[in-house]
Amino acid sequence: MAHMVYPGAVHSRFEHSLGVYSLAGEAIHKLKNRQGLELGIDHFDIQTVKLAGLLHDLGHGPFSHLFEREFLPMVNGSEWSHEQMSAQMIDHIVDEHHIEIDAETTKRVKEMILASSKCSMATSRREKHFLYDIVANGRNGVDVDKFDYIVRDCRACGLGCSFHFQRLLETMRVMGDEICYQDKDYLTIHKLFSTRADLHRTVYTHAKVKAIDLMIRDALVKANDYLQIASYIQDPSQYWKLDDTIIKTIETAPDQQLKESRDLILRIRRRDLYQFCNEYVVPKDRLENFKSVSAQDIVCSQDYDSEEKFSIANDRISHLLPTSYQDMIVGAVAEAFENFQLLTYGIRTQVHSTPDKKKHRR
Predict the structure, then answer these.
(1) Contact present, 113 and 86 (Cβ < 8 Å)
(2) Contact status, residue 49 vs residue 70, Cβ threshold 8 Å
(3) What is the DSSP string of 158-169?
(4) Can you say how many angstroms the Cα of residue 87 is from the centroid of all Cα atoms in its chain?
(5) CATH number for position 139
């Protein structure tokens, strides 16, 4: 629901899936051009990586992660993942539309989609493990899925983006069956995760965005008994019919059983949103044993009328703040390089083009 705060963020997962498909293809082709013979990359590998990029989000429900992480746990309490549903939807589409595709291809594509989820097969059983890290990297999170949505969301929300994934695509190599990058690209990788953290802080968990998310969740929860929304996850042939338009269905239905849900949606339309009160950054030493809290667990005290200046402790803002914003770097320049230039090209300054070779008479 970010578009209700950032009006430009109206792109869908369809555009994102096309983007991941394109980047996955670009990544596997670059690896093939550099190390194709060494790694044994063939047409089957290229095809399955691209299909995994195209289909990796096929299983998302209405309002994406809100449906999976907020709504379903409240109505049925069972663990469910959109990656699993993506795999089921692939089987359903192939069977329903009689698509001629061999079983090995769909099996590999589904394994790639599940690679970073809890349902992933054991790592030791995979051949060419690096292929499974291109779309959904369960080892370190550096994958083309993030490349696309980070740049796309920054652009759509009007935010600056200092992360440029093209450099990583140009320099990546496979070593020990794992995709690796040059050591000098550590800042680019840092920007990948810092930009993602900025998006979560600024967009995905914006106070108004979260308020709307929670109101949508509550509207769906209140409508679930009547519409049986959660039951759709049991049957792919019904699940594909479920999308964001469920809100319009509730909003326009005259049924009395949906009145509470309709009232919540009307409040969203009128911008009468849940009010943000305060937040608390959970200390790192408590994260491991942290459990969900209830309203009764929360005690908050804050004086908004204070006219005296005060400082906010870093750990009350975020654990992602760097400890220093400045480095002192000592660089070394080898005089031997100038001597090499002099001996090779006859000049001490750096040569930026290939010198002309002397022509020899035949």
Answers:
(1) yes
(2) no
(3) T------THHHH
(4) 18
(5) 1.10.3210.10
CA distance 156 to 13: 13
Local structure of 175: helix, strand or coil = strand
State the burial class of residue 212 (Cβ atoms within 10 Å of its Cβ: 0-12, 13-18, 19+). buried
Q: State the DSSP code for 121.
A: P
Residues comprising the chain, all counted: 362
**CB of 154 within 8 A of CB of 147?**
no
Active site residue 82: yes
Contact 85, 230 (CB under 8 A): no
Q: How far apart are CA 155 and CA 278, in angstroms?
A: 29
Residue 73 falls within a domain, yes or no? yes
Output the pLDDT for position 361: 63
Q: Which of 3, 82, 206, 360 is catalytic?
A: 82
- Domain membership flag for residue 50: yes
Residue 164 is assigned to a structural domain of this protein: yes
Which residues are CB-neighbours of 148 under 8 A, at least 6 positions away? 16, 19, 20, 23
Estimate to the nearest angstrom the gap between the alpha carbon of 52 and the chain centroid: 15
SS (H, E, C) 179-216: EECCHHHHHHHHHHHHHHHHHHHHHHCCHHHHHHHHHH
* Residue 67: domain span: 2-207
Q: What are the angstrom distances between the C-alpha of 241 and each of 66, 104, 114, 263, 285?
A: 17, 28, 23, 24, 44
The partner residues of 178 in beta bridges, in order of sequence, read 175
Evaluate whether residue 124 is within a structural domain.
Answer: yes
DSSP state for residue 356 in the 8-state scheme:
P
Kindly give the interhelix angle for 186-199 and 144-156, rounded to the nearest 10 degrees. 50
pLDDT lower than 50: segments of the chain: 123-124
Question: How many domains is the chain built from?
Answer: 1
Residues 200 and 146: beta-carbon distance below 8 Å:
no
- Return the HEC string of 66-84: HHHHHHHHHHCCCCCCHHH
What is the spatial distance between Cα 173 and Cα 159, in angstroms, rounded to a whole number?
Answer: 31
Name residue 305's amino acid: D
129 class by beta-carbon count within 10 Å (0-12 exposed, 13-18 middle, 19+ buried): middle
